[in-house]
Amino acid sequence: MVSILVVYGSSEGQTEKISNRIVELFEGMGHDATAVPVEDVTADTTLDAFDAIVVGSSIHLGKHAKKVSAFASANREILDARPNAFFQVSLSSAIEDEEHKAEAAAYVDEFVEKTAWHPDRIAMFGGALRYSKYGFLTRIMMKRIASDATGDTDTSRDYEYTDWEEVETFASDFATLVAGDTPADGETEGTQA
Ligand SMILES: Cc1cc2nc3c(=O)[nH]c(=O)nc-3n(C[C@H](O)[C@H](O)[C@H](O)COP(=O)(O)O)c2cc1C
Question: Distance, CA 184 to ligand 1 centroid (Å)?
Answer without folding.
Answer: 40
